[in-house]
Design goal:
protein-N(PI)-phosphohistidine-sugar phosphotransferase activity; alpha/beta; PTS-regulatory domain, PRD; single chain; 13% strand; Arc Repressor Mutant, subunit A; activator
C-alpha cells in the first residue's frame, strides 16, 4: 500500500473519531477530491478498512489489526525498483559500500539478478554525476559529496511515490527528532527576515537539512567549486537566515556546519524562498522587491509567449509573481542548484499546451541569459502560467447572481458572505433584495438564489434555506454545473458558427509537405476574404520559430500577428496521421485572428485547446464529416468541462 495511504490511515486511527473530508484535506494539504480518491483506493485494496458516513470517515478498528499484520510482511524489498532503491541506500550509507554477500542473503536473489540490478543502478546514478566501482566483495560509489546528497534526496522522493514531501514521511524516516517543532522554527526565522516558502517547499528544505546533518555526522563534508563567487551570497537575506539556521541545526542535530556547508545552505534558501510582498499588486512598488534586470527578463519572455500564442498575460500580479520566480531561477541557474519537481512528467502529459507555453518562456530566458534551464524548472514556470489561465477563466466566467432573503437580524448579509466564501469562484452576487415585493430586472442576472420559492421566472432560480445546509450546497453545486455546461455549449456554437464555414472544413486531404498544408488552408482563408496574401508568409515564419504540433494529434498554425480581416478557422481532419515537424498529427487547425475580435475568440480558444490536448477527445472528433457536425460535437464536449 502506498505510504500516503498509510499516513492517512495512521492519522484516522490515532484520532479515533469521525473526520470530515475537509478536515483530512486541510491536515494533509491536499484537495477534497484527493482525499476521496485515497479512501476509495484504500478500501479497494483492503475492503472495509475505512468506514464512511456521508462525508465523514473513521478507521474500522476491528479490521485495522489485520492490516497492520499484513504490512509487517512487506518490509523486505521484492520488486526490482524496491531492491535497487535499497541497494543505492546501502551504497550511500555504508563506508565500504554495498556488501555483495549480505545483499544476496538479505534480498533472496541470485548473483545474476544482483549484477543486473547493479547495471540498472549504474545507469540511474549517471544522471547524478556518480558512478560505480567494484572492489573485492563490495560495490562503491564514486563522485563528490554534493551529488551523493542529491542522490539521497532522489531516493527519498522515489520511495514516497515521487510526489511532494509530507511532514509525516519525514518524521517516519528521521524519527529521532521533533521535526514539526524544527519546521516551525525555520518558518519563524524566515518570517523574521521577510522571506516566505510554501508548505511543500519548507519540507524540501527540511529534507536537505536532515540529509546534510546525517552526512556530516558520518564525516562526509561538502566542498564548493573553487570558482564559486560567494560575495553576492553574503549580501543576501538568505545568508543571514542560513547563519541562524546553522545554530539551530547544531543544537538540534549535533551536526557542525562549516563555511562550505553554510554557503550550500544559503544557495538552497536563495533558490527556494521568496520575499514577502505586502504590496505585490502595486506596480509602482515593484522595484522594492524585484531588480530591474529580472523584471526585464520576465517581460521580454512573456512578450515572446504572447506573440506566439496570442494570449494576453499583461496583469501586474502575474508579472510580479513570475518575475520573483525568475529572479530565484536565475540564481539557481548561476550556481547550478536547481529545484526538483516530482510532477514534471504529469504536467507534460496531462497539460501539454500549458507546458508548451512554459517551454517558449524558458527558451526566451535561455536566449537572454545564456543559462541552460532543465525540465524540472520548466514545470514550475508551467505552474505560474496554468494558475494565471485558470484564474482568468474563473474571473471571466462568474455568474451574475441575485440573492433574495429576508432582513431578520442581518440574515441577508451573513448568507451573502457565506455564499461568497463557498462559491466565490463561480458566483458574483451583484444585488441582495430583502423583501418579496421589491422589484427586480431579472434580465440583469444569470441566477437568482432565494430563501423562499419564486414565481415562474425566465432566469434560472434556486431555493435554499437561511442556514445553507449540506443539501443546499449540493443543489447549488449542481445548478452552477448546469449553468456552466449550457454557457460553454452556447458560446462554442455561437462563435464557431461564425468562425467556421463549410468551405473551410476539409476531410482526408493528403499533401506532400507541411508547407503545402499551410499554403492549402491559407489559400482557403484568402479566398473567403478573411486574410491578405501576406498571411501565409506570417504563418510560415511563426511555424519556423516553434512548431505548433501538440500531443501527436493536432497542429494549430497561425500568424505572428492579429491582422486578419476576420477571425476564422480553416481545418483538415485526416484519418491517417501525417508528419508535422518531429510529430505526427491528424488535425490541422489554422487560425486567422482579427485584433478587434480577439476577446470573443479567447472565450472559446482555451476550450478548443483543452479538447485537442486530450488525445481521446481529439480522436472522437475525427468521426465528424462536416463543419456543422464539428461545431455540434465540439460544443457537446466543452459543455462537460469543469
Amino acid at each position: 500500500m502506498k505510504k500516503r495511504y498509510h499516513y492517512l490511515l495512521l492519522y484516522l486511527y490515532e484520532r479515533n473519531d469521525w473526520l470530515t473530508t475537509k478536515q483530512l484535506a486541510e491536515h494533509f494539504n491536499i484537495t477534497d477530491r484527493t482525499v476521496r480518491n485515497y479512501i476509495a483506493n484504500i478500501n479497494h485494496d483492503f475492503d472495509g478498512l475505512i468506514l464512511k458516513e456521508r462525508t465523514r470517515y473513521k478507521v474500522n478498528r476491528l479490521v485495522y489489526p489485520k492490516y497492520v499484520l499484513e504490512q509487517r510482511t512487506e518490509n523486505v524489498p521484492e520488486t526490482p525498483n524496491e531492491r535497487q532503491l535499497y541497494q543505492m541506500e546501502q551504497l550511500l550509507t555504508n563506508e565500504k559500500g554495498l556488501n555483495l554477500t549480505e545483499a544476496l542473503d538479505y534480498l533472496f536473489i541470485s548473483d545474476s539478478t544482483l549484477m543486473s540490478d547493479m547495471r540498472q543502478i549504474s545507469k540511474k546514478i549517471q544522471e547524478h554525476h556518480l558512478s560505480l566501482q567494484k572492489r573485492g566483495n563490495y560495490f562503491q560509489l564514486v563522485g563528490d559529496e554534493k551529488h551523493r546528497r542529491a542522490l539521497q534526496s532522489w531516493i527519498f522522493y522515489k520511495k514516497n511515490d515521487d510526489s511532494f514531501i509530507m511532514i509525516e514521511e519525514l518524521q517516519q524516516a528521521f524519527g529521532n527528532y521533533d521535526l514539526i517543532s524544527f519546521r516551525a522554527k525555520i518558518n519563524q526565522i524566515l518570517a523574521a527576515h521577510q522571506l516566505f516558502v510554501n508548505d511543500f517547499t519548507i519540507n524540501s528544505i527540511l529534507l536537505h537539512i536532515l540529509i546534510s546533518s546525517e552526512r556530516i555526522l558520518n564525516h562526509n563534508q561538502i566542498e564548493l567549486p573553487r570558482d564559486t563567487d560567494l560575495t553576492a551570497l553574503e549580501q543576501t537575506k538568505e545568508f543571514l537566515v542560513a547563519k541562524e539556521l546553522k545554530t539551530e541545526v547544531e543544537t538540534n542535530f549535533s551536526a557542525v556546519l562549516d563555511q562550505n556547508e553554510l554557503y550550500y545552505l544559503t544557495l538552497l534558501l536563495v533558490s527556494k524562498s521568496t520575499k514577502l510582498m505586502a504590496t505585490e499588486n502595486d506596480p509602482h512598488k515593484i522595484s522594492e522587491f524585484i531588480d530591474p534586470y529580472s523584471l526585464k527578463l520576465t517581460q521580454t519572455a512573456v512578450a515572446a509567449v504572447e506573440e506566439l500564442f496570442l494570449i494576453n498575460f499583461q496583469q501586474d500580479e502575474f508579472i510580479v509573481k513570475l518575475a520573483l520566480h525568475v529572479r530565484n531561477l536565475m540564481l539557481r541557474a548561476k550556481y547550478h542548484n536547481f529545484s526538483k519537481n516530482p510532477l514534471t512528467d504529469t504536467i507534460k502529459s496531462s497539460h501539454t499546451f500549458i507546458y508548451e507555453l512554459a517551454i517558449v518562456l524558458t527558451n526566451s530566458l535561455q536566449e537572454q541569459t545564456g543559462y541552460s534551464i532543465p525540465e524540472c524548472e520548466i514545470t514550475y514556470l508551467a505552474f505560474h502560467i496554468g494558475s494565471f489561465i485558470e484564474q482568468e477563466k474563473k474571473l471571466a466566467n462568474k455568474f451574475k447572481t441575485l440573492l433574495v432573503c429576508d432582513n431578520y437580524q442581518g440574515n441577508h448579509l451573513a448568507l451573502a458572505e457565506k455564499l461568497k466564501q463557498l462559491f466565490g469562484d463561480h458566483l458574483e452576487i451583484i444585488q441582495v433584495l430583502t423583501t418579496e415585493t421589491a422589484s427586480l430586472n431579472e434580465k440583469e442576472f444569470d441566477l437568482i438564489i432565494s430563501t423562499y420559492p419564486q414565481e415562474v421566472l425566465q432566469t434560472e432560480a434556486i431555493t435554499i434555506s437561511h442556514f445553507l445546509t449540506l443539501d443546499d450546497k449540493e443543489s447549488l453545486t449542481k445548478k452552477i454545473k448546469q449553468l456552466e455546461n449550457r454557457r460553454n455549449k452556447r458560446q462554442m456554437k455561437t462563435y464557431m458558427s461564425e468562425y467556421l464555414t463549410s468551405t473551410c472544413f476539409n476531410r482526408n486531404v493528403y499533401l506532400e509537405s507541411q508547407a503545402a498544408y499551410i499554403h492549402y488552408l491559407a489559400q482557403q482563408l484568402y479566398e473567403e476574404g478573411y486574410v491578405d496574401k501576406q498571411f501565409v508568409h506570417s504563418v510560415m515564419e511563426r511555424e519556423s520559430l516553434s512548431p505548433t504540433a501538440m500531443n501527436n494529434i493536432v497542429a494549430i498554425p497561425h500568424a505572428l500577428n492579429m491582422n486578419a480581416f476576420k477571425t476564422a478557422f480553416a481545418l483538415i481532419a485526416n484519418d491517417t496521421p501525417i508528419p508535422w515537424g518531429k510529430h505526427t498529427v491528424q488535425w490541422i487547425i489554422m487560425l486567422s485572428i482579427n485584433r478587434e475580435e480577439a476577446n470573443s475568440f479567447q472565450k472559446i480558444y482555451n476550450s478548443i485547446i483543452e479538447v485537442f490536448s486530450d488525445n481521446n477527445l481529439a480522436k472522437q472528433m475525427l468521426h465528424v464529416t462536416s463543419a456543422k457536425e464539428f461545431i455540434d460535437h465540439l460544443a457537446e464536449l466543452v459543455s462537460t468541462f469543469d
